[in-house]
What we know:
The protein has eight helices and 15 strands. It is an alpha/beta fold and 274 residues long.
Amino acid sequence: MTEVSVNKLKIGNSNPFTLVAGLNVLESDKVIEQVITHCIEVTNKLEIPYVFKASYDKANRSSVDSYRGPGAEEGLRILSNLKKEYKVPIISDVHTVEEISMASEVLDIIQIPAFLSRQTDLIKEAALTKIPLNIKKGQFMAPDDTRNIIRKCEHFGNKQIMICERGSSFGYNNLVVDMLGIVQLKESNYPVIFDVTHSLQRPGGLGDKTDGRGSNALDLAKSGMALGLAGLFLETHPDPDNALCDGPCALRIDLLEEFLVQIKAIDDLVKSFN
């Protein structure tokens, strides 16, 4: 079973799970500080490996009026400062080939967004950095379709690959998670990350923005993590109702510790059977 090395972390389906958590998109300094400090405090207490996540630009927002973030240059400066101050690995998503050079100077994991998961030029440039990749499975893709993405990464010389499940389109304005599909993803022998909060989306459900079912985050996370996965991807916010992006899907940050206590117990139990 393949492991991906991120600094001192060893991310693999048989290892204790890694939490990838933070904001959907960079917001104010105050909100960023609240989220990263609380995530570090809780994961240190529970001895859970941790990676901070936040997008510097959300290029695929529903509406032209939606908040996208500070942009690549300013956003990467913020992420670089967070990395230095808090000594945690950083993940963010790239949207264009041109972004990858400057993103690779900051990020410990480069993320390929779900809507761009078949873009060969983007995958090529990301793979050539030799930095670990977290590839979101497109909502429109069957689990076995990810084999072609994996082959692309391998072809361009990068086997530091993680595949991220984030739900599948189910009719209009809805996503479902196929648990047997996650089992198929594990057959690749690469680490599988479960993006629970994006899987709770109702895309376009509010007309000019995405709706979600954040209250079901624990239910869905327990189901997915019972399969024995490498990591859990989670968006959390002090005030989801007023988050600048994807608030309806986010876990309220004061619920994070109890949430992780239960997820860790499931992960420990499942992996004790191996």
